[in-house]
Amino acid sequence: MPIDFSDNLDNFTTFSGSGFSFNTDPINSGNDVGQFFNDGTNAWQSFSIDLTKSIDLGFQKTIALSFYGFDPNTHNLILKLGNGANPDVQVSQNIPVGGGWTDSITFDFSNAVLSSDGVTLINASGTYDKLTIFIDGGATTPGTYLIDNINDGSIGSNPSAVDVEYTNLVWEDEFNIPGAINSIKWHHQTQVIIPGVGWANGEIQHYTDRIDNSFVDSSGFLNIRAKKETFSDQGLTKNYTSARLNSKFAFTYGRIDIRAKLPIEPGTWPALWMLGKNIDENGGFWDSNFGNTNWPACGEIDIMEHGIFPTKDINYINSALHTTCCNGGNPNQGGTIASDLANQFHVYSMNWSPNQITFLLDSVAFYTYNPINKDASTWPFFEDQFILLNVAMGGLAGNIDPGFTESAMLIDYVKVYQASGLSFEDEPSLNKTLKVYPNPSNDEIHISSNVSLNSIALYDILGKLILRKVKDTNSIDVSNLNAGVYILVMHSENEKAIKKVTVK
Q: With a threshold of 0.70, does the pTM exceed it?
């Protein structure tokens, strides 16, 4: 999930003489759809989809899709889930007379029936790996139909659109100075996270802070270079080295663009990703001051990963979200195929709003995460995240080519955009002398400062001004505001301070 028939990566199986193929939307020639053909010879013709990610009905009870009929007749759709630990279940929906597209047909599995008898009601639960669609099951009426946008709530109705456009550049590194990386902006993470073993996921490299593994070249590209060499550190000897960088900048909500060219040799695992600033991970830049939350409760946003999908096209890249509900080998994820990853630069982007997270390749969106139920298990993405750039070796990337010597991910730039007034890059002295309390609050927020404040302004997280005060600036009433995160901007005579506040 989601399945929009645009990449031909899903495995479809037909039954009882039915046919399935990829086709073009008759309304929108730029949209790819799935075509189902029923020849009428069998009453229960259908097609099934082997899901790349299991559907978890404990997390989300509904599945939606779009249906196109070439005739004006009414039709019945049955959506069946199987290959799970629990019994197969199904839900049916009638499509009204009219033909053409019927969008967002919703199948609610809290009102499912057992597929074994088609009668017994059940509030379905558990995970399922196969989805089967019957069109007019039980009838021998021939017909051709189109299916599109099958989703379980992890994608919006228009996956190609971001819901908020962030245009204010708040942080960047264009890697214009050759030599060592900018230590003001980046931290080398070298301490292994599993003492006496190494890194997670079976990776077999050491990360170092040596210029051999990370540097800016004369063309203005950051090189993160993986090398085959014997290297000993922290009492461990490894046969490969590389680099893992943490940004010394963290943010909540915005867009990140990273222009990069990737290594694609077997066993290499380049990644552009993010972690919650609160992750408890020894050796990370933010750990000593903020590390109080374990993975995956901190949230992880994988903007781009390559090399860990051996059955996919060599130019396939993937994006994923890891949370307590869905992580490890079963995250919420989506992917696409780029052109010539090894020789061409591409822009990998993530657009993060309070409502959804959308991933883009060269400004074209291919996956959106938008869970209907946003709670701690599905949406820890309301606090600061920082950026990670690294090339791992082995582990989930599989066997390393015996002839491998070295290869690098080249990064042209990293840019972060937000709405106006949402940058937290600066840390003026005013920020260090004032207190904002209680935070979170559902009533009043009080401000204590050693200097006189001339004004305070409260913005929502998208940069919209909520209120402004130029007198009596020691408190603001938030009792009438919706719950969420807001930005408090305070001005003294010579400085501006920015604080994030939460309304319960």
A: no
